[in-house]
């Protein structure tokens, strides 16, 4: 604006701004070169007045700056208040801390009390800081939050220090979260890395500090923080790693537990003992820096180095998963912490896992075998070892208890038992030759391995040679329904199709139920239910379940049992199962399905009943693998190692085992493999034994779906 049109009075005259700035005319390029006399008015303006105006303008500008800053500060406070109000509207109440629930825990322990696995959340006794040795909370504070007792829940100094350390390292090597922040996250929030979660964490940390004392916050943290191996809280961790309550922890033990907090898996003393020790030493150094202990105390503690308890390294996990699945069926839904005392023999489990791995990595890999399963039972049905696959970490699908596979000739004992109970005997004779079976959609002519027939043979010889035509003849004589009834009586629960091919094991079953059914041959004729849980107790020792009962009772008469022992021993002594012969009384039977897609051997001694299956999840064929080759050899290795050094025990009824004539021994068939390859063309698609899937955790669901689909197929194929 120009100066006022009315000139100021001389009394109140003030210099005008235009006097100290170029005029509009002077600013024009055309007239700038023409000199012009100054106006009289401009000549009368004193220099002192111009300086006063400059100072006044500067003060005005600072005033405006302060005003704008104050306004911005007010708006910032208001905005921050709105943000806090927005996030605080649905924050959980701190009073809920004592009311928070958790999933009940289930610990699976072996026959000797050693822990195999844990499910749920394991907590120990809730302890206050004053209940613990001073070095326990000190170790945690030294390495996690040294300024805990001096900050209000958030530590700006700690955040700045962490930022500098991380910047220098070029990566995140140090966190700035306080114990209060960690407690807020552990109790109320998730581990997602979002700004929303972080803001809520900060607010809850302030709120915890406002509502609780420092000792209360620290106590809650020590009782809730995760220490790895499924343990929450310092007391549970002390018992898990050192077999003692937290009240009794030594200095080094406290340092090792504190060291676990940053990365429980990485610093797990069972998996990485040297790394865990190095971390414990770093905690001791931090305690020295914080003034909690002396250098001498730290050195002595590091040199004494307590060895933690041996933690499970995945051994027995297939068994643990199966046993855990049994608990709800025994007592209903889990509503409290329990310990399942099982039948697992850690030594037998180790033997079974080692031999499976050796077989798959050696001969199995050479002959196209990618998976195997093993079940080891006591004759009373107690599961002593269980291997559900080659690698639990890669696939948790349990091929011993969940996979439905065709057993091949391993099903024949049920056919022969039916015939024997109907009056047949091991020396009874049948004709082994081409036979034709009428079917609704054509005819079927079962053939023997190698397309060879032996004419008139005893049932003993037919069983030992695994002759298919004789098995089918016996099923026709007795009826498929009678055979199914015998199988179910011995514990087979899978659906069995009443087809002529049932005699050759085309209906799918699990290895676990087949092995349990064979237990009746090993124990004198008594049926069993396979079981893994002997009792259930609370962590304090209160028994809430104890197994009682004797299984299925007698399912085979003494005379029929003696006759079946005759047949089963003949198979191991000089028949298709002779590769399994352990050098002590034993019986068993091989099984091989179409194109060597499945290979079985199930056998027993007086002490153990062991079932072996080998195959591929995708149902692909193996290379010249039959039940009498790799499975029988694997069975032999497991049983021989398991019974090494033990006295030879007779079977419950020692049956005589007639030996074949020399000319007969020369002509013995190696196995019954490939029998379905010789089905006549009008019975094509007799149902493969594949359990579809990739063999990985992601393919387990596909395995189960494909198995359900196969349940809907019959001998003729198709959906």
CATH class of the largest domain: Alpha Beta
Poorly predicted regions are 1-45, 661-719
- Which class do the helix and strand fractions yield? alpha+beta
Nearest-integer average pLDDT: 80
| C-alpha end-to-end distance | 95 Å
For the secondary structure, the number of strands is: 19
Largest sheet: 5 strands, mixed
Topology of helices and strands:
Blueprint: H1 24-27, H2 40-43, H3 47-88, E1 106-109, E2 115-119, E3 122-123, H4 135-144, H5 156-169, H6 179-188, H7 195-211, H8 214-224, E4 226-228, E5 231-232, H9 234-242, H10 251-260, H11 273-289, H12 295-304, H13 317-331, E6 338-342, H14 346-366, E7 371-377, E8 383-387, H15 412-421, E9 429-432, E10 437-439, E11 442-444, E12 455-458, H16 459-465, H17 468-478, H18 480-489, H19 511-522, E13 526-527, E14 533-537, E15 543-546, E16 553-554, H20 558-574, E17 587-592, E18 598-604, E19 609-615, H21 630-642, H22 662-666, H23 700-711
Helix pairs in contact: 4-10, 4-11, 6-7, 6-8, 10-11, 11-12, 14-21, 15-17, 15-18, 15-20, 16-20
Q: What does this protein structure show overall?
A:
It contains 23 helices and 19 strands. The protein is an alpha+beta fold and 719 residues long. The chain has two domains: 132-304, Penicillin binding protein transpeptidase fold (Orthogonal Bundle); 351-711, Beta-lactamase, CATH 3.40.710.10. The strands form six sheets. A five-stranded mixed β-sheet has the order 2-1-6-14-15, covered by helices on one side. A five-stranded antiparallel β-sheet has the order 8-7-19-18-17, with helices on both faces. It has a three-stranded mixed β-sheet with strand order 3-5-4, with helices on one face. A hairpin with a 5-residue loop joins strand 17 and strand 18 (598-604). The chain is elongated and about 125 Å long. Residues 1-45 and 661-719 have low confidence and may be disordered.
